[in-house]
Amino acid sequence: MIKAEGLSGGYGDSRLINNVSLTVEKGEFLGILGPNGSGKTTLLHLLTGTLPAKEGSVDLAGKPLADYKPKELAQIMAVLPQKTDQAFTFTVKETVAFGRYPFQTGLFRQHTEKDEAIVQEAMKQTGVAAFAEKSIRDLSGGEQQRVYLAQALAQQPRILFLDEPTNFLDLAYQKELLDLIKRLTRDSGLAAVSVFHDMNTASLYCDELLFMKNGTAGPKQKPEYAVSDIKAVYDTDVTALVHHSSPKPMVVIQPEKDSVKQRPIPFETLLQAGSDDILLQTEIPLRTLSSAPIGAGFSWSRTLIHKRLPVQADPVEGLTACLLENGFHLPETCAMASPGRLDRFVNRTYKDGELSVFICVMTGFSIWILINGYAADQFFVKALMTAEAERVKVLGDGLTEGDILIAATQTQQSQNTEQRLNQLIQKGTAECVKEAAELFE
Prior knowledge:
elongated, single chain, 8-stranded mixed β-sheet, L-amino peptidase D-ALA esterase/amidase, ATP-binding, 2 domains, YvrA, alpha/beta, Rossmann fold, transmembrane helix, 27% strand, AAA+_ATPase, P-loop_NTPase
């Protein structure tokens, strides 16, 4: 669809883009990213021909960009800039209808039924049909941006260029706009090239990413493989997170570490127990991995609760109703249930220097393992497997239906602590489960 080779250029005597090459195929969504001043918008101007290249070439649909007449180019390409200043007062519908100009012929350029249908569809797609007769000057910045996208779509382009298209949009309209563009690339073969500031948005929607720095660009690459370049491009520390429903990574910045050392949480003094529930709440959120019905998997929790429910009760429905009734916040609550009384349990703290692990074994042999310290995600999994193995060793396979929770404060500790932590968990689980088995007889 579009091919650039050795592209260099800038404004006046300056050269802001140096030797950039790229291709964008039919149906592809390419995201261009980079720090401020890296040349993203300038590259867009070179690709669309609004800024002549000093060196290199751009081919569009197999033909040099410079060989297209303006009207012919507008039938293939549409551009949505960061912000469009409206010098005249036109209605929304009139503004969108300007997108049909490249296809109109004759001295008086009649607006045909086909043009009208395309304009109506573009307004419907972008959610601006409701204020078609309003002056565009009376709209908010986000609403205006959607009108100009409708105008671009009314051109029925084969390739669409966008410069930070979501700048003025709230979250709902950001999603709607990008969902629409992605749908058009998938269903209609539209090629899209967009400048982004938000790495995570670009990662979720784009097929390929191109990183720029100081006017140069590396090869485009799939979002799954782009994380390693981010630190070098932006000169900052970031962490890649796994998205729950997509292979494309999410990236978060790392704040400066607090130099004040956090005191260990006295889990044993925070524990509240009765015949119907065992509760522990902390001021700081704990990183948790749980097999419990509420808060299963990895999450962050301030409240841990084990609730007594009737044997016939559904654990998820029963726990959810109970938590809501008592004012617990579900996103930060990890909850498990069992039918027996909960006023008999075993809990103990195990220490090794600066490390401490609090272990509580409850009715049904459910286990809480709470760590004052840092644990990587892979260690959480290892710790859960260790606890399960020790429980089976003591009880055998027949009495191991209870849930297991691993939680950690995530405060930094000295290096090489995982082996020591695992030893504490192994020893503590075996001892506490054995004592609980004797207590529950």
